[in-house]
Please model this.
Amino acid sequence: MTQAIVAVFCIVYLGMILGGLPHLQLDRTGVALLGAIALIGMEALSLEDAARSIHLPTLIILFAFMVVSAQMRLGGFYDWVTLRLTHSALSPPLLLGALIFVVAALAAVFSNDIVCLAVAPVLIDACRERKLDPLPYLLALACAANIGSAATLIGNPQNMLIGQTLQLSFAGYFLDAAAPVLAGLFVVWGLLVGRVRARGAAVAVALPAPAPATGPSPARAALDRWQSAKGLAVGGLTLALVSTLAGNLFIVGSIANIIVVDAAARRGVPISWRCHARVGIPVTLATLALTAGYLALRMAAGA
Model:
């Protein structure tokens, strides 16, 4: 059974990376749904267990934001913002920076997936009107949406889940997350702007379970409530930040990435997993390093 589950997992992730499976008319959503059906069909997971794995409060919050954002989309808000940016007199490098910070601000409030869904199609068309290659701007959209969404507890589904489960303070989390998020946005701009300038106007572009202990158990330290409280506080923050920032690593790391890639493909701008990884991997490593350094300073200051 374990081998079958691993096989399903690998096939699903391969399909998510490639955008589909050979000889099957399925997109990434279809591949994921097929994998879930396979697990239930082979009785690796019962239908009741599958239903219980859904966190209803998070889905309700996400649905509420989708309703609000849908109203804004129907009202032309996202189109207006995107067109104001792309039709401005900014040079391509400055346009890239403006896009990154505007998208990050929107994702922090209205959820990264929704922002990518609304902005990507308009962005592609607007870039073509300006004779700009849309690829670097689409990569900037996906990365900035992921990083910006880490700034608040309502920026993405995982933050919503973590915030509700751990009862985190909205304002407290924002104040802690703001610095690494801001630094991460500058990293994205720095990585992409060099490629923009180099090409003139655009770029054509889980840890295994620990082994059981065989020797005597090490001595356990006495509980230190102050140190434990600090660790937990930094850990609600660490889990939310890292789970979001790591989403930039590969296309399958977040729904926002998949939305941008699919929207680009429908408009004839293919983004391969290699192309995304060339930006996503350094962005992820840099932002995680910045976050680790920031949290280490926080813990040292409170020691």
Summary: Confidence is low (pLDDT under 50) at residues 200-224, 227-235. The two ends are 47 Å apart (CA to CA). Residues 187 and 283 are 7 Å apart (CA to CA). DSSP finds 13 helices and no strands in the chain.
